[in-house]
Amino acid sequence: MSQSILMLKIIRVIFLSMIIISCGKKENTGEKNSGKKNPEKTNANKIVNDTSGLSHYNIDSPEPRITDLPSSLKEISGITFSPDDRLFGIQDESAIIYQIDISNGDIIKKFAVGNSVMKGDFEDIEYVNDKFYLIKSNGELFEFKEAGNNEYSDYILYETGLKQSSDVEGLCYDEKTNSLLLACKGKSGTGKADEKAIYSFSPDSKILDPKPKFTIPLSQFKKEFNPSGIKKHPVKNTFFVIAANGNEVIELSEEGLIIDRHSLNPKIHEQPEGIAFSKNNDLLISNEGKSGKGYIVIYPYQSK
Q1: What is the pTM of this model?
Q2: Given this model, what pLDDT does residue 291 score?
Q3: 56-299: what CATH class?
Q4: What residue ranges do the domains of the chain occupy?
Q5: 226-250 pLDDT, tens digit each
Q6: Which backbone phi and psi does 275 adopt, to 5 degrees?
Q7: How far is residue 220 from each of residues 58, 173, 198, 224, 258, measured CA to CA in Å?
Q8: Which residues contact 87 (CB under 8 A, 6 or more apart)?
């Protein structure tokens, strides 16, 4: 065999060996990359699913549990639970607090805020550290203790600085920041007409932060979205905001981002005004009775 032919064969063997080694490296690299990407994708999906509290409720149920209310609560607005799981509500024309039996809608007791019944546009109520807070649409915030049946409670009035143009509709407590959140249906106060604002009020300093804690961009909605109630989810630490104008519930992260949303059936929710979570995490939405009695819709919490 000539020397030139032998050299050619040696070169071919070396070349084929390099190709085999190169392919082996690419296959190994691909296996490592796929091994990294798949768990990351799975974990990311798991985080998204676990973050959503709204996904734990069957909002699409055609026959949710409904509790009718007496005529005195036809225009029910806000609702809240005490730590011992008693439900309290208000109607938007006077400062009378009603304790409601959620099983049948009966009034267990009622008491007034102030020694004479105050009239006004009272929108929401919250229970915080043995005290009630009641908000009017003009931004006036009332602090008071619970009273006995047919009695009255003295109150402290705080001027938040929000005006009637803000049209405050929702009130909730965020224990993580020790603040009351006020959801506005009207002007945001930011100078922008294409957003709704949620402000933060400190129960300690009695001062409202002039900068909204959250803003909700209206560009995210095909229809109107005018907040009518807000409450913090007890498990997920997210915020549920309902809108009567728009008939929708959205869920905000702790940073104020929309992480979930769901339309409310207008045949079931004629005018959703208040929202609350029971001790076992059930979602309650109070509805003003446009065509009859006020009522509360209950969606049981599903742990999955």
Answers
A1: 0.83
A2: 78
A3: mainly beta
A4: 1-51, 56-299
A5: 999 999 999 999 999 999 999 999 9
A6: -145, 145
A7: 23, 25, 16, 10, 9
A8: 79, 80, 81, 99, 100, 101, 102, 276, 278, 284
